[in-house]
Amino acid sequence: QVQLVESGGGLVQAGGSLKLSCTASGRTLSSYWISWFRQAPGKEREFVASISYTGDMTYYTSSVKGRFTISRDNAKNTVYLQMNSQRLEDTAVYYCAARQRVGLEYALGEYDYWGQGTQVTVSS
User: Fold this and answer.
1) Is 80 left (phi over 0), alpha (psi -120 to 50) or beta?
2) Which of 22, 24, 77, 122 is buried most, with the most CB atoms less than 10 Å from its CB?
3) Which parts of the chain are beta strand (E)?
4) What pLDDT was estimated at residue 115?
5) 111 near 49, Cβ under 8 Å?
6) Per-residue confidence of the chain (124 residues) as pLDDT tens digits?
7) How far apart, in whole angstroms, are the C-alpha atoms of residue 86 and residue 10?
């Protein structure tokens, strides 16, 4: 069993930056492919970014490419999402999710564990 806890969310002005963390307990995170998803009010949860077991492969949805960076520190059992140049449309609850099987996956049901989410609000 893996417990995921997100942190780092908050209120930021448009153009600003936030860094989210996803910390795992229960098992080592290095055995899991980790993704970040987000869900805005009234919308479906959507894929944001993903990182492979060792961090050698990363993937981003087009709307955040060049602005967001996913990274991981397996020694700290933590995955990060650095969010720069934030836009109003980045406002959402951000979730991290863990998946043991290898490969990029967009489907929510393919993930084994989820965190509780952290709110990110971008203001004008």
Assistant:
1) beta
2) 22
3) 3-7, 10-13, 18-25, 33-39, 46-51, 58-60, 68-73, 78-83, 92-99, 113-114, 118-123
4) 97
5) no
6) 899 999 999 999 999 999 999 999 888 889 999 999 999 999 999 999 999 999 999 999 999 999 999 999 999 999 999 999 999 999 999 999 999 988 888 899 999 999 999 999 999 9
7) 12
Among 77, 83, 110, 113, which residue's Cα sits nearest to residue 97?
A: 113
Compute the Cα dihedral for 84, 117, 113, 5 and give only its sign.
positive
Residue 10 tokens read as 């908050």
Q: Position of tokens 């290095």?
A: 30
d(CA 123, CA 57): 32
| C-alpha closest to that of 67 among 24, 12, 108 | 12
